Amino acid sequence: MVTERAAVTRSSPRRQVLGRRDYRLLLLSFTTSKLGDFLYIVALVAYVFAQTGSAAWVSAAALSRFVPYTLLSPIAGVIADRYERRTVMAAGDVVQLAVMTGLTVTAAMSGPVPLVVVLSAVAASAATLYHAAASAMVTTVVPEDELAAANALMSTVDEVAFVAGPAGGALLLLFGQPAIALGINAATFGISALLLLAIRTRSRRTTPSAHGSVLGELREGVGALVGDRVVLVLVGCLVAGTLVYGVELVVLVLVSSELLGTGSQGLGWLLAASGVGGILGATLSPRFARARRPRLTIAILVLLTGVPLAALALVRAPAVAYLVLVVEGVAIVALDILIETTMQRTVLRDVLGRVSGLVLSLSAVGTALGTLVAPALVDGLGLPATLAVAGLTPVLIAAASLSLLRGFDAATERGRHALEPRVAVLQTLRLFEGAGPAAIERLAAAVRQERLPGGTVVLRQGEPAEDLFVLVDGDLVVDHDDGVTVRRINEMTAPDYLGEIGLVERVPRTATVTAATEALLWRIPGELFLEAVTGAPTLSPTLTTGISTRLARTPGRA
């Protein structure tokens, strides 16, 4: 009989990840929310422009959504790390439901535009909670080796919504008032919150006292971002891409009207082409994630986020322009997925929400800078030169920064081969069933090898649980002191593991373990071990059964 595990192993990455109930709920929540967002954006702009006829007020409405993301995303990241992430996301949705209901009523009654702008800002502030927690939440419901596929599916949804949402909003405006689209958007947040609350998996959370003030927690997030050279360089590449995107928001309408001769209405086709490319990029990204030369792959994707914009300076045929932007869309989304997956794999989950919030804020700043400098560049250089400068300068600098990761590909490959013997031992223990290969490689890389003479105490009953131990060679004995007598409760022979009870149950050591002979042990940091086993959708059956059996042997703990 074919087991469910074996069937999942043979299926495609997307089928594997879609086979996970909690991920499906998270994806449905994300889909519902994104479609509603794009309906809302169209309705918001239509309402503000209809009421004022002013481009300045339309800009103010756009900034009302942009500014909260820039200023509040880092704080939202702290909240996402401090509290249970499913609840944080649902709370953000509930606030948006209330605010969007107010916006719907305001629009239906032709209410004042300043009130609409204020409500839009409040909604965007609540949205930062959802988006800061979303990336970290994916790591909670999906094992590490399926992260690329999970992120690709969510990016596909994002790009489809980018195309379908505005189209749906435009159709709704043909048959009714903006209030209808706003009301539908309000309902999407209610549906999204219900889907999130149906998720069974719970993320581990940090306590405020562990890190001190909010400012202290923010500093810890910044330290995690700047302290990892690989992540820092990749985030710099991502921000360079957002600069290009910010410029595009201003100049694509000029490209359509002045260079392609398709008028302002041609802007929609240019954006649609980029959206189609994004869908393709999300589809191809798992292949990019498995590339044998990751640094070269990233460098090519970085260049392709800006070169297409520069190429538009020479293009006069609309069909060619659309094709160029399809290529750009592929690169932007694939790069975004690769960077997000890298962060999820390398940044400790306890600070991942804060790092995600900081990246979201930096991306918003990059987009804003591009938007702000574009008009000045067009006035000073002209449109073709602006396309060339804005498209090439940021991405060339970013691509050059990848030189800081020289040897990254070779080191990754050497490290993988060097870790193979350790990975093989860890896999034979069946302790990490459900954890992906990347997670096990991280554990193997963190191993500290210790050779102990017979009679050495490895663990002492009552001491804090900090590390997991793997017995590679030798024998151990396990004794429990009930306060009256010391009783031998177990004897261990390599290969085996110990120390997992205190870590998973979050209790002091339940017994004293002593080397009966000379023993070779691997010490693995407890935090990494917990990330590996709690990052899977469920704890390994071997682990839970082993804990239950060992606790049953311990008097007073059965």
Tell me about this structure.
The protein has 558 residues and is of the alpha+beta class. 72% of the residues lie in helices and 8% in strands. It has 22 helices and eight strands. The chain has helices at 4-10, 13-18, 21-52, 55-82, 85-108, 113-141, 147-175, 178-197, 208-211, 214-226, 229-259, 266-289, 294-304, 307-311, 318-346, 349-381, 383-401, 408-428, 437-445, 500-505, 526-534, 541-553; strands at residues 448-452, 457-459, 467-473, 475-481, 486-493, 496-498, 512-515, 519-525. The chain has a four-stranded antiparallel beta sheet. It has a four-stranded antiparallel beta sheet with strand order 2-7-4-5, with no helix packed on it. A hairpin with a 4-residue loop joins strand 4 and strand 5 (486-493). The longest helix has 33 residues, at 349-381. Mean pLDDT is 77; it is low at 1-11, 206-211 and 535-544.
User: Rounded to an integer, what's the Rg over CA atoms?
Assistant: 27 Å
Biggest sheet statistics: 4 strands, antiparallel
**Number of DSSP E strands:** 8
Task: Give the neighbour order of strands across the main sheet.
Answer: 1-8-3-6
> Oligomerization state of this entry?
single chain
User: Outline, from the CA principal axes?
Assistant: globular
SSE order, one letter for each helix or strand: HHHHHHHHHHHHHHHHHHHEEEEEEHEEHH
Query: What portion of residues belong to β-strands?
Result: 5-15%
List segments where confidence is low: pLDDT < 50 over at least 5 consecutive residues: 1-11, 206-211, 535-544
**Helix coverage percent of residues?**
over 70%
